[in-house]
C-alpha cells in the first residue's frame, strides 16, 4: 500500500521527469533500485543506520547508483536527508502508476488455469482496457487452478470475474437460498 508521503515524492519526481522527458528512464531506474534493495537488505540497513552521517550515505548512494538518472539519485539523497529511505519501494510503485496513467496504460493481473498466449493477452488487454478507459493493459498472468476455468481480471480496484468457480458459487447461492 502506497503512503501519502511516497505519493508526494513520486508526484514531484514524475513532474520533473515529464519536464525533462525521461519518464521511461526514471521508471526503469526505480525498478532496478527496488530490485537492488530487495536483494540486498543490508543496503537499507546501512542507509537507515545512525552510525553513518547523511553525507556518507549520500556518497554511498551516488557510488552505488552512479549509472542511474541524476534526478533519481537526487531523489534518493533527499529521502536520506528526510529520513524516508523506507519509502523507496512505495515511491517506485506510485511513480510507475503515474507513468502508466500518463501513457494511457494500466497494470492488470489475469488469473487463469494455464499460461495465456500472447494473442490472448492482447485480446484481454484491448477488451478490458476499453472497460476501464485505458488504451493498453500491462498483463501479469497468475496461474490459479482453483478457478477451474475462465479468467478473473483485476485492474486496480476493478475485478472482472468470469470463472467457472464463481459461476458455480453463484448457482449454489441461488439454489440453496
TrEMBL record:
The keyword Ion transport applies. Keywords: ATP synthesis, Cell membrane, CF(1), Hydrogen ion transport, Ion transport, Membrane, Transport. SUPFAM superfamilies: N-terminal domain of the delta subunit of the F1F0-ATP synthase (SSF47928). GO terms for molecular function: proton-transporting ATP synthase activity, rotational mechanism. It is a peripheral membrane protein. GO terms for cellular component: plasma membrane; proton-transporting ATP synthase complex. It is found in: Cell membrane; Membrane. InterPro entries: ATP_synth_OSCP/delta_N_sf, ATPase_OSCP/d_CS, ATPase_OSCP/dsu. Belongs to the ATPase delta chain family. This protein is part of the stalk that links CF(0) to CF(1). It either transmits conformational changes from CF(0) to CF(1) or is implicated in proton conduction. F(1)F(0) ATP synthase produces ATP from ADP in the presence of a proton or sodium gradient. F-type ATPases consist of two structural domains, F(1) containing the extramembraneous catalytic core and F(0) containing the membrane proton channel, linked together by a central stalk and a peripheral stalk. During catalysis, ATP synthesis in the catalytic domain of F(1) is coupled via a rotary mechanism of the central stalk subunits to proton translocation. This is ATP synthase subunit delta. The gene is atpH.
Amino acid at each position: 500500500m502506497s503512503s501519502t508521503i511516497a505519493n508526494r515524492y513520486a508526484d514531484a519526481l514524475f513532474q520533473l521527469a515529464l519536464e525533462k522527458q525521461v519518464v521511461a528512464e526514471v521508471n526503469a531506474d526505480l525498478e532496478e533500485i527496488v530490485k537492488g534493495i530487495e536483494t540486498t537488505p543490508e543496503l537499507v540497513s546501512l542507509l537507515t543506520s545512525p552510525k553513518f552521517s547523511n553525507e556518507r550515505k549520500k556518497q554511498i548512494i551516488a557510488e552505488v547508483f552512479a549509472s542511474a538518472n541524476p534526478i533519481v539519485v537526487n531523489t534518493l539523497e533527499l529521502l536520506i536527508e528526510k529520513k524516508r529511505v523506507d519509502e523507496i519501494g512505495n515511491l517506485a510503485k506510485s511513480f510507475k502508476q503515474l507513468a502508466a496513467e500518463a501513457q494511457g496504460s494500466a497494470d492488470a493481473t489475469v488469473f487463469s488455469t494455464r499460461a495465456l498466449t500472447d494473442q490472448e493477452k492482447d485480446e484481454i488487454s484491448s477488451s478490458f482496457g476499453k472497460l476501464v478507459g485505458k488504451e493498453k493493459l500491462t498483463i501479469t498472468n497468475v496461474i490459479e487452478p482453483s478457478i477451474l476455468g475462465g479468467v478473473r481480471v483485476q485492474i486496480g480496484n476493478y475485478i472482472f470475474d468470469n470463472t467457472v468457480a464463481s459461476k458455480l458459487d453463484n448457482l449454489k447461492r441461488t439454489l440453496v437460498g
